[in-house]
Amino acid sequence: MAGESKDRAGKIRIWRNARLATMAESAAGLGIVEHGAIAARDGLIVYAGPEADMLAAFGPTVFGKAGEIVDCEGRWITPGLIDCHTHLVHAGDRANEFEMRLAGATYEEVTKAGGGIVSSVKALRAAGEHELVAQSLPRLDALIAEGLTTIEIKSGYGLDIENEKKSLRAARLLGEHRPVTVRTSFLGAHALPPEAKGDKDAFSDLVAKEILPAVAAEGLADAVDGFCEGIAFSPEQISRVFDAAKAAGLPVKLHADQLSNLHGAELAARYGALSADHLEYTDEAGAAAMATAGTVATILPGAYYFIRETKKPPIGLFRQHGVRMAVATDCNPGTSPLTSLLLTMNMAATLFGLTVEECLAGVTREAARALGLFGKTGTLEAGKSADLAIWNIERPAELVYRMGFNPLHARIWRGR
Which CATH superfamily, name and number, covers 12-80+379-412? Predict the structure, then answer.
């Protein structure tokens, strides 16, 4: 059986009679290939392009030698979807705060009343690791059902050493329970826990000097994030955390300019951040700095919609300066209880004016870039992970156009 399994693993698997949206940078637009095919071996794409050229590359007997051939019957194939900004691991919900906001309370007022992130901290601290996994799996399953193959999951509801580690371990365990790639981000500088007694300086020092090194020592985080905002942490406080991240060899990301302009985008760029996220109040200097640094702008329409913001992120400035844009759910219990990348794309288009191409690139190629994974996934190209989504659609625009409708036919993760 072992020999048989090894032989099967080394065989080529082929998806033929398909239309491809490769999302490759070298191609125009969506990288559309009519009459396309994809071949994969050992979880990696070895060919993606016109079916006729595959025959030329591998020889006319390639179909006879393949371990499996899937006739896609003219369906579309895109890269598997990537959600590059989530707080998926959390306990309980905050539906009561939703009611407060419906009655007129602002995000800041909810926070000052003891709600907001701190209420999620209490719930997470009371939950065990396996309980966190059990509560988070349905949210992950909803995303997987729409073609998700890679997800980023942040901590930030523990806010002490043991509970931050618990949260990150639970996120890692989700990748063992489901066939999906999980990237974790340590978000210790998310909010003040009750025991901090309002001292942001002391807590940001604790995050930088104790919690972050403990997390890094156990290899629990792939990146370090922070929340730079008046109700959270100042640029100076975030800088201390980012200095510690760099010392630990971890890339950084930042919740920036969501509710005001503290020049978080420029701060993120100064540290060479993988991404700066939210960005509703980012100015031209911030956009220009991100473009120079190669920092991805992660657009989060779910939070904008849910907390009824009116200030839109400066999409025009990002286009003008050539800032790459990712799109993500920001799945979290308080400001974006959203578990649909398809709906997120529709929101990005209708609320912010992103094009179909920008939306699809935002949940594939640019989302991979925002996670530092562009060399491994996000496009249909040889050498990348065979992460595919196969759709029952007539044109790619349907993936952005429809609401509450899931046209996924099949999802492939690492070739299976």
Answer: Urease, subunit C, domain 1 (2.30.40.10)
Separation of alpha carbons 289 and 283, rounded Å: 10
Only one residue has tokens 């922070």, namely: 226
Categorize the per-residue pLDDT at 55 as very low, low, confident or very high, splitting at 50, 70 and 90: confident
CA angle 188, 278, 28 (to 5 degrees): 120
Residues of the chain with CATH 3.20.20.140: 81-370
| Token pair in block for residue 386 | 């065979």
DSSP 205-216: HHIIIIIHHHHH
- The mean pLDDT value for 394-400 works out to 98
- Percent of the chain at pLDDT > 70 equals 98
DSSP 396-411: TTHHHH-SS---EEEE
Residues belonging to the binding site for N-formimidoyl-L-glutamate are 157, 332, 334
Q: Where in the chain is the domain with CATH 2.30.40.10?
A: 12-80+379-412
Architecture of domain 81-370: Alpha-Beta Barrel (3.20)
| Sequence-ordered strand ranges (E) for 249-396 | 253-256, 275-278, 296-299, 325-327, 388-391
DSSP reduced 3-state for 152: strand
* Least confident window among 39-43, 117-121, 161-165, 266-270: 117-121
pLDDT for position 112: 78
Annotated binding residues for 4-imidazolone-5-propanoate, written as ranges, equal: 94, 157, 190, 258, 335
Give the number of residues written for the chain. 416
Instruction: Please report, in range form, the residues annotated as the binding site for Zn(2+).
Output: 85, 87, 255, 330
Residues annotated in the binding site for Fe(3+), as ranges?
A: 85, 87, 255, 330
| pLDDT band at residue 3 under the 50/70/90 scheme | very low
* Least confidently predicted of 5-9, 61-65, 183-187, 214-218: 5-9
Query: In this model, does residue 261 exceed pLDDT 90?
Result: yes
3-state helix, strand, coil in the chain (%, to 5): 40, 20, 40
Instruction: Cite the annotated binding site by residue number.
Output: 85, 87, 94, 157, 190, 255, 258, 330, 332, 334-335
The Cα 63–Cα 59 span in angstroms is 9
CB atoms within 10 A of CB 217: 10
pLDDT band at residue 118 using 50, 70 and 90 as cut-offs: confident
